[in-house]
Amino acid sequence: MDDNLNATYITLAGFVELHKYRYLYFLVMFTVYILIICCNSVIICLIVIHRNLHEPMYIFIAALLLNSVLYSTNIYPKLSVDFLSEKQIITYPLCLFQAFIYYSLAGSEFLLLAAMSYDRYVSISKPLQHPTIMRKTTVIILLVLAWTVPACEVAACIVLYTDIKLCNFTLKGIFCNNSIYSLQCVRSVVVSVFGVFMLLNMALFPLLFILFTYTRILIISYRSSKTVRRKAAQTCLPHLLVLINLSCLSSKTVRRKAAQTCLPHLLVLINFSCFITYDTITVRLESDFPKVARFIMTLLIITYHPLFNPIIYGLKMKEISKHLTRILNHIKFKKLY
């Protein structure tokens, strides 16, 4: 009977001083979860409701924020139950399912950011062709690929895990992620190779594509002013001052557009890449990371990133910020009168 239970249930051993602070943990995590749902949902609703936000960039942002809601829902309800329970356990099939959702959404995050970087590149380098290139059909195809490709790859990896014999039934984390790799009796070469393939395909290649597109955007925004000034220098004097003035305005417009739209995406990319790097190094390579530090970093991963996305897009994206300001002003006006 005990052997059957051990073969079925996995113990989550990453919690610190749970017997002392279980209610504090629960209260903090429940509050954060409500904030994540509310903040992300507000911006998603704004994008859905307002027609001027029905552009590829904002659609991709809405998809990214929806990912944050699903990502949090995959972790927080089970985590809340564990905080209040005497035993922190999870069945192995449910553990695999949680890991499937976790890494499917992580992979789609990189692909969505890659789609957003391509949209920004087309918008800045080919502004007149942008509506024809980034059509509604193209946006839908990119969204479908961003969600289905990682899901299919992670599903294939999870199928490999179902046939692996387990000798260890204790995870060092507080939810199921790459740490299930350490449960195997014998390390599977197929799983290891496929894991590297997934890391390259879902994270590294999209990351390189994003860096390439943003580098091109910076080069274009720099060269645009030089090109216009060169043309100005080749014209006669009456047109010279006018064209120089236009070149300054043009270069400023391009640089402002690049900064306003690309900076939030880069901040989100850097933030998410750091957490994925941590997940890979400390878990997959089984580094001797202190339990308290591991617990704190895990809490940061599941709280900081889902809250960071709506805040950065709400503050840095001009159109979204404008609608949020109107809502806040309307609420203040109602309170006053």
Let me know the average pLDDT.
80
Distance between the termini: 67 Å
Radius of gyration: 24 Å
The profile of the biggest β sheet is: 3 strands, mixed
Q: Percent of residues in helical segments?
A: over 70%
H/E element order:
HEHHEHHHEHHHH
> Strands across the major sheet, in which order?
2-1-3
Count of DSSP-assigned helices? 10
* Contiguous uncertain segments of 5+ residues: 1-6, 231-254
Tell me, briefly, the overall form: globular
Structural class: mainly alpha
Query: Beta-sheet strand percentage?
Result: under 5%
The total of beta strands comes to 3
Keywords for this structure?
disordered N terminus, 3% strand, cell membrane, mainly alpha, 3-stranded mixed beta sheet, olfaction, G protein-coupled receptor activity, transmembrane helix, 10 helices, 337 residues
Q: Brief overview, please?
A:
The protein has 337 residues and is mainly α. It has helices at 2-8, 18-49, 56-84, 92-125, 130-133, 136-162, 189-234, 237-284, 291-316, 318-336, and strands spanning 9-12, 89-91, 170-171. The longest helix is centred in the last third of the chain and has 48 residues, at 237-284.
